[in-house]
C-alpha cells in the first residue's frame, strides 16, 4: 500500500481513501484471521438484536420506523440488544517525524511524509488487528471483552446456556485420551443444530500441548507424526499434532491490554476446540463509523481519516472500529483443560 499524494495539499485524503488504504494493509498478527474462522458482516446500526432459540443465537434485521416488526414472543425464545463497542485509536504526524529525512523512492521524492504516514498506518492497523483477535478469541469461548480486559457480554449468562468442558486428565498415565477426544467430537456434533463442519481444530496452551504429546497414550503417535509428517532436524514439529480426529495446535498468543497488563489468549493448561467449515456460526459484526457521512451506511472492519491542523503544525491520524464478534452456537466451542 503506497500513498503518493501530499496530505498537506488542500483536501488531503478523503475518508474513503484513508479507509481503503488501511483496510488493504496485511494483517500480520492474528491466527484466527489466518484460519478464517470469523467472517465479517457489516451492519448499518450501532447495535444488534440477537435472538436465542434452542441454543442458537441469530441476528435480527433492522426495519424502518413504522415497518413490520420481527416476532420473538414464542415460548423458548429470548432476545437481547447489544451495543457494538466503539474502538477509536489516534496518532499524530509532527514536523519532527519528517524533518531532515530523505525521500524514499522516485514516486515519493517530493516529500518523505508519505513514508511516515504509511508506517504509522501500519502500526495502527496492527493494533486494531490485535484487538480484534483478542475479542474474537474470547467470543469463541462465549465472552466478549474490550481492550482493557473488561467483560462486555457473556453470551452464556445472557441466554442461560452452559459451556461444555472436557477434562483430559493428562497428568494421569492411564487416561484414555482417545476417549476424551471422542467426547469432544460428539459434543460438537450434538450441538451443530443444523450447521455443517469439515473438521475440528483446537488451540491449546503450551502446557496442555506438552502434556498431550508426552502422555503414554499419545507419545508413540506423536513420535510417528514427527518422524513422517516433517523433517525433525529442520522443522518445528511441536506446533500441531493431529490425533483421533482433532488437530491440536499450540497457541502462545499474548496481548498487552490498555491497562499495560499482559494476558494470554489461551490460559495455562487449557484449550478450546471448535469446528471449521461452518456456514454461519462465527461472525464479527461491524457498524458504521461515528461520523455524519457514514451514518446509516453498512459498516466496514476499520475506518481511517486524517486532519491537518489549521495552522499546519501537525496531522492527526484517526482510526476507529465498531465490532462485535458473535459465536451463534456457543456450545460448539468446547473448553479443554487438564486438572492435573
Q: Can you tell me the number of structural domains?
A: 1
CATH fold naming: phage-related protein like fold
Low-pLDDT windows of residues:
72-76
First-residue to last-residue Cα separation: 49 Å
| Count of discrete alpha- or pi-helical segments spanning 4 or more residues | 8
Computed structural class: alpha+beta
- State the order of secondary-structure elements, H for helix, E for strand: HHEEEEEHHEEHEHEHHEEEEEEEEE
Largest sheet: 6 strands, mixed
Global morphology: globular
Q: Strand tally, please?
A: 18
Q: From the alpha-carbon coordinates, what is the Rg to the nearest angstrom?
A: 23 Å
Side by side, the strands of the main sheet go: 8-18-14-9-11-10
CATH architecture: Alpha-Beta Complex
CATH class: Alpha Beta
Helix content: 10-25%
Describe the structure.
The protein contains eight helices and 18 strands. The longest helix is centred in the middle third of the chain and has 28 residues, at 113-140. The strands form five sheets. The chain has a six-stranded mixed β-sheet. Strands 1, 5, 15, 16 and 17 form a five-stranded mixed β-sheet that branches. Strands 3-2-4 form a three-stranded antiparallel β-sheet, with no helix packed on it. It is globular and about 75 Å long. It has 340 residues and is of the alpha+beta class. The chain has one domain (15-65, 73-337): Alpha-Beta Complex (phage-related protein like fold), CATH 3.90.1690. The chain is 25% helix and 29% strand.
